[in-house]
Amino acid sequence: MKVLGAIGICLFGVFSSPWIYGQVVEVGGRVTVATSPLRNAQVTLSGKTYRLAARTDSDGRYSFQLPGNCPCTLTVEAPGLHTATRTVPVLRTGEARSVDVMLELSGVQDSIDVSAKMWDAGNGGVAISQTVSRQDLSELPTVTRSTAKSALLDPHVRQAIGLGADYQDSNRLSINAASYRNTAYVLDGTTTYDWIYSVTPTEVVSMGATQEMKVLTGNYSAQYGVSTSGILAITTRAGGPQYHGEAFAYIRPSGIQASAPLAAFHIPNEREDWGALVGGPLGGDRTTFFASYEGAQQTRGAYIQSPLPGFFNGKVKEYYPLLRFDRQLTSTQSLMVRFNGNHYESNNVNDRISGFNQPSTGRYARTQSWGGQVAEQAVFHNKVNQARFSFVNYFPDTAIPLQSSVSVVRPNYSTEGYSTANWVHAQSYTAGDLVSIHQRRNDWKIGMELSYLRAKDYSYTPFGTYTFASGAPQPNEHPLSYSQTFGTAFLQYKQTELNAFVEDNVKLNSRLSASLGLRYEFQTLTDNDANFAPRLGLAWDIRGNGKTILRGAYGLFYDQYYLYISRRFLTLGPNAPTATYSLNYGAAGFPTFPNSLIAPPNGVSGGKRDLYLRPARLANPYASQVSAALEQNLGHGLTLEISGLYVHTLKQMRVNDINHPVPFIRTASGQYRGGTLAGAAAAADATRPYQTYARLPVRDIAVIENTASSAYSALDVGITQQAGTRLRLAAHYVLSNSVSYAMFYSDANSGVPNEWNNLASAERGPGDFYQRDRFVANAWAQLPARFQLVSVVTLASGLPVNPITGDDNNGDSYAVDRPVGYARNSFRTPLQANVDAAFSRRFSLERHLQIEARVEADNLFNRHNFITVNNVFGEGATPLASFLTPKSGITNADPARQFQLAARLIF
């Protein structure tokens, strides 16, 4: 670490040395035909004194480096297609220009000016979306080099946990204030949604291996589905006709980092990211390759704030390899083969040990996946066919306790002990086909995808859990309840998912385009077999000059179930291999603290089971979306876009405890069923309609139902500015409103009502991830002496806080009782504000070799942004002093200010 730090400091020192800087500019872009990427097209760039040639890669991309301060002409040619030309204006040193070209098929009689702005009425023209480019991924500062977290450049995307989070939960991104479990992923055209936990893609690709990521947040075309909220569509990088590559190292020394939020002293925090990538031709001009490898290791201290200040050192290791080959089989046929994997391990995932959690709650965890994809593309006159097959073998969760022991929970004070060992192993197979057909004014797309997944699942918990009253230990106190799981679960489950679509992007006249689509989705996990989703979009070029575009769209979208719910049905059903018993203090067989039971308790008056049941009919939630957008080119590189989106989602999941006690309506603070907290549970159990179910002694019987709904509306104002060669700016502000009745995460205690007789009134409130205002801006500035400054600024309203009393006043076993007079999510965390910055300079060692030195600052002004705060209001008419106070840990708060040094060798 010290050696790498010294290297980083030395490289930073060369900032003041201009002798190796060269004067070059970059021109690149993408070539498409019938809305699909075109490989191996001939691209020529001609100036007064030079002529450069290249061929497009498998994603249709090309790039050149050339002398600055000169205009040039771009020519694109391919067999069977009309030749296209573009004029590239004068570029100055250090400037990059993107020039995309859509080629027309020979024989097409329509006369279309290919130099004018083309409007795709499908995904690109009607969808509410943003694109995170290769330049964004390469230049913008980042906390953990997470590709998925770059989606936060779109203000429709919110984080569900802290920015510094890792492991599978690091990609908990909420789109349009919806549950993060509804966010879907696509990799190179194939769905990579994690059908088990639904918190991350099955295949994680590093930033260096990513070409671009499209963030689809509303009314996307019929080609996309699986989600009612949004999709992250990632494209991997490919080799090209010229060799190119990069080696890099990012170093975060511990000593210069700010203390973690709430920490009373400095705790360790150091990280190293390193990697290399290379691409180019392989054995001729018909085959190209791209290979990348990225690794990271981090030592991160997690602050423990109660009962005594302290910290725990967490160790993290990550690896991300990728290898891709592209082969031009014939002039009209190409093949892509990709292999990739990822591995993560840590002894303190997401700062599990932090805040109130003591070191004895820790576990060692690991996730990994490996797999790949084969894709074939063929062009037949006016048709393009893309066939894909992918396979992924992955472990979404594997964990063992650091020290297996009895759990002791004292809410709002401390949690000790943990004893569950578990692993999940899954394999998925996906096959798909996409046909694009150009017919005069129509661009047809017809496609299907079939996905099959099977999983093996193991878990074992040898010790039980004691729960005490909230707060510090009191003299002569006793536990309120005890629970323990008996048996070992070794499960196997599977599912098949099928989707198909057809859409027509038609140019009705020179100014008006339309997108008409129909999508069908089928999932064996649910009981729906008529999930048809129509899509309609219109794009109007108001003045006919491509400068003022009005768009509107309507669509129907479906969510998919994740198999973790099936796992719950299997492990918590009446015939489950495991059985969890709960006992109130004083019940027959209640163990002596801190011992665990050696056998399940007997009799109805002893331990009771909590069941988790599938309803008679399980439906897929669906959403109606309506959107409108106006895009105005204001000239001088300035573009304004204003869009509105409304999403109404129905048949959302929620928990219904069909064995809940009779309602206990409190009218004043400090009221408990049965008169006391200790007696509330027993008094509630006496009013439950079932004492036994399927011949089992029962307490809660959670049935998952499709009886919740939500509504989301948003106004988005975005502006982009290209001010010559010195400044580039993109800024978006979203004003939104969100209302929901439940937020379901698959646990039996999530999304439950405060009382079971007033779902339609008391449970109506803001969504858990609702932020009324969110502003995100990023800017590139070329400074004197050829330095570059890049910055990302985020300002947002605080997240909702659901106030609770901290006690189970009504004795129903769900700790969501709210203080009298307060509704769900009726408080908020403080305003969020964050500024990240990167300061860099690139030097040319020779024509094709450059070195870049950079310094990055995340959370430059050391603003403490808290995602989760203490939501225990207390029993009184006024809140406890601890109410709304922050919690420590990387999931509860964004990282404090962090500096890192970086060096990149680019060729």
From TrEMBL:
CC annotations in GO: cell outer membrane
Cross-referenced InterPro entries: Beta-barrel_TonB_sf, CarboxyPept-like_regulatory, Oar-like_b-barrel, TonB-dep_rcpt-like
Transmembrane segments: none
Limits of the TonB-dependent transporter Oar-like beta-barrel domain: 235-306, 322-525, 526-819
Keywords annotated in UniProt: Cell outer membrane, Membrane, Receptor, Signal, Transmembrane, Transmembrane beta strand, Transport
Localization of this protein: Cell outer membrane
Entry membrane topology: Multi-pass membrane protein
Recorded GO MF terms: siderophore uptake transmembrane transporter activity
GO biological process: one example: siderophore transmembrane transport
A Pfam cross-reference name: OMP_b-brl_4
Protein name: TonB-dependent receptor
Species, as recorded: Terriglobus albidus
